[in-house]
Amino acid sequence: MNDMDRRAVIDKTVGFVKQRLSGAEAGHDWWHIHRVWTTAKHIAEHESVDTFVVELGALLHDIADSKFHDGDEDIGPRTARGFLSELGLDEGVVEHVGLIVANISFKGGKHEQKFRSPELDVIQDADRLDAMGAIGIARAFNFGGHVGRELYNPDIRPNLEMTKEEYKKAAAPTLNHFYEKLLLLKDRMNTETGRRLAEQRHAFMEKYLEQFYSEWEGEI
Ligand code: ADP
Ligand code: NI
Predict the structure, then answer these.
(1) Which atom of ligand 1 is nearest to the CA of 65?
(2) Which atom of ligand 1 lies nearest, measured to the CA of 143?
């Protein structure tokens, strides 16, 4: 496939994703995809990867998130594979993108990831980076608001031993999510570039939490 055909496939994928995600929760909407796509391309410049697969995987990684589809974990990979097959793409690319969509998710970080590839490593870093820093904070509180969580409750401690099932059902205040996921991400990066960006975003979240507790206690 030449570069022009590849561009056409990317453009069609953008159109498909925008349409499928219209009205999505603001932390998992087209703009989340757009940021992950941009960051993934940036990280990919420093890695030896198939950038076409990186772009398609980034664009399709949240095409149908199981937590918004009654826990159906195959709906995302199935939708991505179906879309790409219809465009007549190489079976190898279709399968690879399907595996990326199936294996990118955090889900408490305790379950074993069954598939890895350098392309998935790049997209996973980009997705994790979007859960950190200023945007990560905004996304967490938006998600918490979306499902009716408290901002913070000093009586409910974070639970670091959650199973995948507990993680999915967790109803704790949003601040707990920082300890259960967001602050753990910097040590889970796959690439050098990802690690460097994660350090900055991590430091910002720590600063934010300090200020949050200080205001909570009424300090001035
Ligand atoms: P993944 O989609 O990578 O498996 P999650 O679904 O756990 O990860 O989270 C994606 C994003 O959704 C998080 O980075 C966060 O912004 C938001 N989110 C998910 N669960 C929570 C939660 N319990 N509290 C606050 N935000 C959450
Ligand atoms: Ni995502």
Answers:
(1) 2
(2) 26
The three-point CA angle 63-66-67 to 5° equals 115
In the predicted model, residues of the chain with pLDDT beneath 70 are 106-111, 167-170
CB distance 78 to 101 below 8 Å? no
The pTM (predicted TM-score) of the whole model is 0.93
Q: Are 69 and 44 in contact (CB under 8 A)?
A: no
pLDDT at position 129 is 98
Q: Is the CB of 144 inside a 6 Å radius of any atom of ligand 1?
A: yes
* Torsion angle of C-alpha atoms 186, 42, 20, 78, degrees rounded to 10: -70
Taking residue 116's Cβ as centre, other Cβ atoms within 10 Å add up to 13
Ligand lying closest to the C-alpha of residue 181: 1
Contact present, 107 and 164 (Cβ < 8 Å): yes
Name, in order, each residue with C-beta under 8 angstroms of 121's C-beta and a sequence gap of 6 or more.
47, 190, 191
Determine the Cα–Cα distance for residues 91 and 159; give it in Å rounded to an integer.
42
Domains of the chain: 3-216 (1.10.3210.50)
Atom 14, ligand 1: which residue's CA is nearest?
A: 131
